[in-house]
Design a protein that fits this description.
The chain is α+β, with helices and mostly antiparallel strands and 363 residues long. Helix content is 24%, strand content 31%.
Length: 363
């Protein structure tokens, strides 16, 4: 071997020595360094860990067998695969006696529903109620040892706050993702009655019906939909506010179904420019721009150009407030609407209509 070859060989060995020294710094006996305990997690990271661990027993997987029309095995092979559900989703336990919130589109066509808990136990579920108008559905299972979520105040949610979503995207149970509240009061045209929380926490097919949580572990929403051009996560997800989900669940339990009060008007927020342009006589309130003929507002004599300012003696905060408060009034009950017509204040008694009936009659 010539002197150049010997030099190159020596250089290569030095390189190896450097690599070994880097892999086990300060050790000349060839042994790997001992594993040391990690430092304490930062506060925000620890909050995520705590919520995920606390929430896991309260999240369920929902498997649904429908009429078979959506079963992939039937589509490709001509028969249903045994024990293969047509669809899967998620759910949130809200009562220790077995009440579970999920989405209408997860269970609406179900002939059989099975709920699997985080501990692996499975139970047949009965459908207490389902509401396509809000996308809320309520299930019940007969099981012991259930851990319900505390219900948070979704009206207090603020844009920018951290949230956690948990569910079974693509069948991967107990998947945890984190993000922030991107917006509130969103209306992505999924259903008629919309007041969605928007989040950038990753939500994918299978997350439907699962919980959206604040960092105290409170249920503030039910994950429902994504806005996507691909069918997968693109950073825009929507959740039903917990306040609305709880209200609809209460209607299932007390009335046997979800009813929705309906006024039958189209409205916009009033403004100085609008008031001046149409000579409304007031710059405050909600301008009624259209009235559905033959329904509640029309029967009460309300007309386009009227400005609604109060409902049952309480001021209206805007179009969303009017829609929410009318929805809470049972069809057939009466309400008093305070309006201004061409500068003159007056009150109108309205017999509240039924939105489901309106849908049937206008299809």
């Amino acid at each position: 071997m010539n002197r150049l070859a010997m030099f190159i060989g020596a250089l290569s060995l030095v390189g190896i020595g450097i690599a070994i020294g880097t892999f086990s710094p300060g050790r000349r006996d060839g042994r790997l360094p001992e594993i040391r305990a990690g430092s304490a997690l930062p506060t925000i990271s620890q909050a995520f860990v705590d919520v995920a661990e606390k929430a896991k027993p309260s999240v369920v997987n929902v498997s649904v067998w429908s009429d078979g029309s959506g079963n992939a095995w039937r589509e490709y092979f001509g028969y249903e695969a045994p024990n293969q559900p047509d669809a899967t989703g998620s759910g949130a336990i809200i009562e220790a006696d077995g009440l579970i919130l999920t989405n209408n589109h997860v269970v609406s066509r179900a002939r059989k529903i099975v709920v699997r808990l985080a501990d692996g136990r499975e139970f047949p579920a009965t459908l207490v109620g389902t509401d396509p108008i809000t996308e809320v559905a309520l299930l019940r299972i007969r099981a012991t040892g259930l851990v319900p979520f505390p219900i948070g105040d979704s009206d207090a949610v603020r844009v920018g706050q951290w949230v956690i979503a948990i569910g079974s995207p693509f069948g991967q149970e107990s998947t945890v993702t984190a993000g922030i509240i991107s917006a509130v009061g969103r209306r992505p045209r999924i259903t008629y009655f919309e007041d969605y929380l928007q989040t950038d926490a990753a939500i994918n097919p299978g997350n439907s019906g699962g919980p959206l949580l604040d960092l105290d572990g409170n249920l503030i929403g039910i994950n429902t939909a994504i806005l996507s051009r691909t069918g997968g996560y693109q950073g825009i997800g929507f959740a039903i506010p917990s306040r609305l989900a709880r209200e609809i669940a209460g209607r299932f339990l007390t009335a046997g179904g979800a009813w929705h009060g309906f006024l039958g008007v189209e409205v916009v927020e009033n403004s100085p420019d609008l008031a001046k342009q149409f000579d409304l006589g007031t710059e405050k309130g909600i301008v009624i721009t259209g009235v559905q003929r033959g329904f509640a507002a029309d029967r009460a004599g309300i007309a386009p150009g009227d400005v609604a300012q109060s409902l049952d003696g309480e001021d209206l905060a805007g179009p969303k407030d009017l829609r929410r408060r009318i929805d809470r009034i049972k069809p057939g009950e009466t309400a008093t609407l305070g309006i201004v017509r061409k500068g003159e204040a007056r009150t109108v008694r309205v017999t509240i209509g039924d939105y489901a009936r309106y849908l049937e009659e206008t299809r």
